[in-house]
Amino acid sequence: MSELPQKPVFRFAPSPNGALHLGHAYSALLNEQLARKTDGRLLLRIEDIDQTRCTPALEAQMISDLAWLGLDFAPPHRRQSDHFEDYRQALDQLIGRGLAYPAFMSRGDIRAWIGDQERETGKPWPRDPDGAPIYPALDRHLSASAREARIASGEPFAWRLDMEAALAMVGEELSWLETGEGPSGAHDIIAAEPAVWGDVMLARRDTPTSYHLSVVVDDALQGVTDVVRGRDLFFATAIHRLLQHLLSLAAPRYHHHRLILGDDGTKLSKSKGDTGIAALRDAGIDPVTIRIKLGFR
Ligand code: GLU
Hints:
Rossmann fold; 10 strands; globular
């Protein structure tokens, strides 16, 4: 792993596709607390690559809710949709080294193909740690001319990582330093197992990047030393470590934290208005009460 700069750099990286809720607030406040304790800097990154769901109005609302909570982020704020060119360059590196391929199957194609497969074999198709089916990768070994012909005919496609080729290129065990806790409470050095994700998406049909690609590019570009985020992203860290290795990017430390659950025990979502920060403010609750409720002073 490359050397990390001395002063810690933290980031809070919300996607403005809904209202800021208590789960976000917990993550942002924990970042703030850890940055303060370590004399580090806290950055804000707006993860808005999904331009159909993320809107300027939601972004403005999120920023104002964060300010109301008393959170202060070091400038400049990075907005991912302003930096598609950075992600394109990283993607081009992977394509140039034969590690990415155009994937033509739509979600519907994938669903239908897997359904047939499961009926024929009587066995469930393998799933990734998030429960999504592993990409069937029928087009991984298409000839260059077949690919070109399909692209030239205007067929839509995404870019996917050739996981097998990528792992062969790495040729060593990947790991990360976990300072928080994983689903099993484990911490310390965690062995990364990216293979369980299959050929992950690097750029979507309608977006020139993906969450995984842009998050590793930005963490490196912003000099982030400490990624503090929800435990729901624990297993995805294996993909991030792989991409960092392939793109020669420094590896941050990771701290995955507990998720704030709703009263019904399920994960909070942006559509659940009752735990939205703006809704709590409108109900007369003040920022100090929210901090205390979440376990901060
Ligand atoms: N943008 C992601 C989210 O809102 C967080 C990504 C990260 O912290 O790595 O869930």
